[in-house]
Design a protein that fits this description.
The complex is a heterodimer of chains A (255) and B (425). Helix content of chain A is 37%, strand content 11%. Chain A has 255 residues and is an alpha/beta fold. A five-stranded parallel beta sheet of chain A has the order 2-1-3-4-5, with helices on both faces. Chain B is built from 14 helices and 13 strands. In chain B, the strands form five sheets. In chain B, strands 1-2-3 form a three-stranded antiparallel beta sheet, with helices on one face. Chain B has a three-stranded antiparallel beta sheet with strand order 6-7-8, with helices on one face. A three-stranded antiparallel beta sheet of chain B has the order 11-12-13. In chain B, β7 and β8 form a beta hairpin. At the A-B interface, α1, α2, α5, α8 and α10 of A face α1, α2, α4, α5 and α6 of B.
Chain lengths: 255, 425
C-alpha cells in the first residue's frame, strides 16, 4: 500500500447514510482487490490513521455538503484532487434530504427539534454548486459494478461516459414485464440506465434516483404517467431523489 | 491540553464507526467533569420530511436513514404503518421478514466484529494490515457476510436499500430454487462461523464493568428479533405501544441527538442486552458457544458486546436455516401483498436492529398521508450509557501516553458499535 507508483485515492463522506460506501464494501474480496491496486489515502470505514492531506489522483465524495464543516472538507478534497468524482444520489442530486427544500423549512425542523439554537438548517444543494465535479456515479445507492467498471479509466485520468440508455434497456434484457403495462407509474423511460434495472426487477417502480437521461423525452413520459398518477403525486414522487428541480429546469428549456 | 488542575481530552474523529463523531472530555483533579460524543453530521430531518407524504413513501425514505441497517428501518416503519391502518399479514410474510432481519444482523455484526473492532484488540490502526496478517479469517468473514447479504438480496431484492417488502406483504417472493440455494448456503457457512467463533474466543478482551439496565424485546419460546414485548433486566415487561410512556427522549439545546432515558437513567440495548435477557432461548450451537465463554450473568462488561455479536451471528445462521426449511414446504405466494383498505390511525412498532431495539411511531390520516412520525434509534438510546461508562473508564487510562490513551478510548467507543447516521437522522 506504500507503493509510490499506485494511484492515490480517498473516499470521503459528507452527510449521508453511507450506503454507497457499504455498497462498495459489500463487494467483499473484489473491493479488497481494488483497494490493493490503489493507495487508499483515506477510507474511514477501514482506517484509523489520520489523513495527512496528500495530493490525490481521484478524490471521491459521498453525501451532501450540509454543514459548514462538510463544505470545508469538500473544498479541501477538490483542491487536492486531479479528478473529483461523486458517488450517489445525495451528492449528485441532493438525495432525500432535498425533500425539505420543497417544504416550508421552518415547519420541517420544528417537527424534529424544539430548540433550534445551534442547529444548522441550510437549503440542500448538490455538490456541483460548491465545486467542479468531473464525474458522477449516480444512484441510491450506486451500482458497485459500475464503480469497478469505470474506476480504472478514472485512475488513468480519463473521464468515462455512461451510455445514454433508459432503465428500460436492462429491464427488458432481464425479461421483466413492463410495469407501465400494469398501470404502475414507472419513471424508467426517462431515467439514465446502468443500474441493472434493480427496482423494476423487484417489481418496484423506478423513481429516478439516477437522474434524467440526456435524451429522455419528458413530455411523452408525463403524458403516459397522467393516466396513472395525479400531477401532485408525480411531483411528490419526483422529490424523493431530488429529481423535481432537474425536471423543472429541463421543462423550462423545452418551452 | 493540560494544566496543574485539569485535563481536556479531544478526539477529532473516530473512524471505523458508522457516521461522523468525535469525543471530548474534561477531567479536573482526577474527577471526570464531562465525557461526550460530539456529532459531526448534518441533520437530514427525516421525521420532518415524512410529514405530509403518502404512507407508501415512508419505508423508502426511512430506510435511507442508514446504509448499514436499512433493512430494520424498512421493516419497523412498515410494521408501524400496518399497525396504524390495521393491515394483517400472513405467517409467510412474517417469516420472510424475519429472514431479512437475520440477514441484517449477520452482515452488520460480521462487519463490526472484524473490520471495525478487531484491529483495536490486536493493536493495529489500519484494516489493510489486519487483512494482510489474517487472510484466512478475512475470507471467512467475507463469506459469512455474503451469506447474510444473500438472504437480503434474494428476499429483499437488494442489500443496501431493499425493494420488495411493503405494507401488506411482498411485491415479489423468492422461487423454490432460490430458497433451496439459501438453505445450502446456511449449511455450508455453519462450520466457518464456528471456526470464526473460536478465533474470537482467543482474543484478549479488556476487563471493565459497570452495572446497568439491559432492555430488549422478549418473546415466549423464542430469541426475540422481529417481534415481542419490551423487557428489561430489572423486571420491566410492557407492550411496544407503551414504549414512549416509559422511555423519554431528551431535547437539549445544541444537541442534535435526542438521547433516551428510562426512569431518569441510562440503559443499554443491543447484542449484549439481548444475550443478558434472552440467552436461554438461543439456538443450540450459539448457546453452546456462549457457555464456552464462561461468563457469569448478568455480565456488565461493555467490551463483551463484541462476543455477544459473535454469538448472535451463530444464532442467526442457525435460525435462518430453520426458517428456510419451514418455507421450503409452503406456498410463498401467500406472502404477496393482498388488497387492503387505507385507514386513519396511530401505529407503533419495535424490531431488534443490530445495535438494539428500533422504535417507530407513525400517525396517518384517512387518505394515508402522514401526520406525525417519531423514530427512536438504538444509538440515541444507548448514548447516555456509553457516556456514563466512559466517565468511569477514563481514570483507568488517564496515566497513559496521549496516543495510547486515545487508542483505548476509540476502542471503547467502537465496542459499542455506535451508528451516528441513525442517531441523528
Amino acid at each position: 500500500m506504500e507503493n509510490k507508483n499506485k494511484p492515490k485515492i480517498a473516499i470521503v463522506s459528507l452527510t449521508s447514510c453511507e450506503g454507497c460506501q457499504f455498497a462498495l464494501l459489500d463487494l467483499g474480496e473484489r473491493f479488497l482487490d481494488f483497494a490493493n491496486q490503489v493507495e487508499m489515502v483515506e477510507f474511514r470505514l477501514l482506517e484509523d490513521e489520520e489523513d495527512k492531506g496528500e495530493k490525490l489522483d481521484v478524490g471521491i465524495i459521498e453525501g451532501n455538503p450540509m454543514t459548514e464543516e462538510n463544505i470545508k472538507t469538500l473544498k479541501n478534497l477538490r483542491e487536492r484532487s486531479k479528478l473529483l468524482v461523486v458517488i450517489g444520489n445525495c451528492a449528485a442530486m441532493g438525495g432525500i434530504p432535498e425533500i425539505k427544500n420543497y417544504q416550508e423549512g421552518k415547519n420541517t425542523i420544528k417537527h424534529v427539534y424544539k430548540y433550534l439554537q445551534g442547529i444548522e438548517n441550510p437549503e440542500i444543494k448538490e455538490v456541483d454548486n460548491f465545486v467542479k465535479v468531473d464525474f458522477t456515479f449516480p444512484g441510491c445507492p450506486i451500482n458497485a459494478e459500475e464503480f469497478l467498471l469505470y474506476m480504472p479509466g478514472l485512475l488513468a485520468g480519463k473521464i468515462p461516459q455512461i451510455p445514454d440508455n433508459p432503465v428500460c434497456v436492462e429491464c427488458k434484457k432481464k425479461g421483466n414485464r413492463c410495469l407501465l403495462l400494469d398501470k404502475k407509474p414507472c419513471f424508467g423511460p426517462m431515467i439514465l440506465g446502468g443500474c441493472d434495472a434493480a427496482c423494476p426487477t423487484s417489481r418496484m417502480v423506478c423513481q429516478g434516483c439516477r437522474g434524467l437521461r440526456p435524451k429522455g423525452n419528458i413530455k411523452a413520459m408525463r403524458a403516459t404517467l397522467k393516466n396513472m398518477m395525479t400531477d401532485e403525486e408525480f411531483e411528490n414522487t419526483a422529490e424523493i431523489y431530488g429529481l423535481r428541480d432537474d425536471l423543472e429546469e429541463r421543462e423550462k428549456k423545452i418551452n | 491540553m493540560q494544566n496543574s488542575n485539569g485535563v481536556n481530552i479531544k478526539i477529532n474523529h473516530i473512524a471505523k464507526t458508522e457516521g461522523h463523531a468525535g469525543f471530548a472530555a474534561s477531567i479536573i483533579k482526577g474527577d471526570v467533569k464531562s465525557a461526550k460524543l460530539e456529532v459531526q453530521e448534518g441533520m437530514r430531518l427525516i421525521e420532518g420530511i415524512l410529514v405530509g407524504r403518502n404512507f407508501m413513501d415512508v419505508p423508502i425514505v426511512a430506510q435511507r436513514i442508514c446504509g448499514i441497517c436499512p433493512v430494520v428501518h424498512n421493516l419497523t416503519s412498515i410494521k408501524a404503518l400496518e399497525n396504524a391502518m390495521g393491515v394483517k399479514v400472513s405467517e409467510e410474510t412474517k417469516k420472510l421478514r424475519t429472514l431479512l432481519e437475520l440477514g441484517q444482523l449477520i452482515h452488520s455484526h460480521a462487519l463490526h466484529l472484524f473490520f471495525l473492532s478487531l484491529a483495536d484488540f490486536l493493536d493495529m490502526e489500519n484494516d489493510l494490515t489486519l487483512i494482510k496478517e489474517y487472510p484466512e479469517e478475512t475470507r471467512m468473514v467475507i463469506r459469512i457476510r455474503e451469506y447474510g447479504m444473500s438472504l437480503i438480496k434474494i428476499i429483499g431484492g437488494r442489500v443496501v436499500h431493499p425493494l420488495t417488502n411493503e405494507v401488506g406483504g411482498f411485491k415479489k417472493v423468492p422461487t423454490t430454487e432460490e430458497i433451496q440455494q439459501l438453505i445450502q448456503g446456511s449449511e455450508k457457512i455453519i462450520s466457518e462461523v464456528l471456526e470464526l467463533g473460536e478465533f474470537f474466543r482467543k482474543i484478549k478482551i479488556p476487563e471493565f464493568s459497570r452495572k446497568t439496565e439491559y432492555v430488549s424485546l422478549g418473546q415466549k419460546g423464542r430469541y426475540a428479533i422481529y417481534e415481542g414485548d419490551i423487557i428489561s433486566s430489572q423486571g420491566l415487561h410492557i407492550p411496544a405501544e407503551k414504549f414512549e410512556a416509559n422511555f423519554h427522549e431528551l431535547q437539549k439545546q445544541k444537541e442534535v441527538i435526542k438521547k433516551v432515558e428510562h426512569n431518569g437513567k441510562s440503559y443499554m440495548i443491543g447484542a449484549i442486552a439481548r444475550i443478558n435477557n434472552n440467552r436461554d432461548k438461543l439456538m443450540p450451537l450459539a448457546h453452546k458457544y456462549l457457555e464456552s465463554l464462561g461468563w457469569t450473568f448478568p455480565d456488565f462488561n461493555p467490551f463483551h458486546n463484541i462476543l455477544s455479536q459473535m454469538t448472535e451471528v451463530i444464532h442467526c445462521i442457525e435460525e435462518s436455516g430453520k426458517i428456510l426449511k419451514e418455507l421450503s414446504h409452503v406456498d410463498l405466494n401467500k406472502a404477496l401483498t393482498e388488497k387492503y383498505a387505507v385507514k386513519e390511525g396511530v401505529g407503533v412498532a419495535a424490531v431488534e436492529a443490530p445495535r438494539g431495539t428500533l422504535y417507530y411511531h407513525i400517525e396517518v390520516d384517512n387518505r394515508g398521508y402522514v401526520k406525525n412520525v417519531n423514530i427512536m434509534t438504538p444509538t440515541a438510546q444507548f448514548l447516555s450509557n456509553l457516556e456514563d461508562d466512559i466517565a468511569l473508564y477514563l481514570p483507568k487510562v488517564m496515566n497513559l501516553e496521549e496516543h495510547e490513551r486515545e487508542k483505548k478510548l476509540r476502542a471503547f467507543i467502537r465496542a459499542y458499535d455506535p451508528c451516528i447516521s441513525c442517531a441523528v437522522h
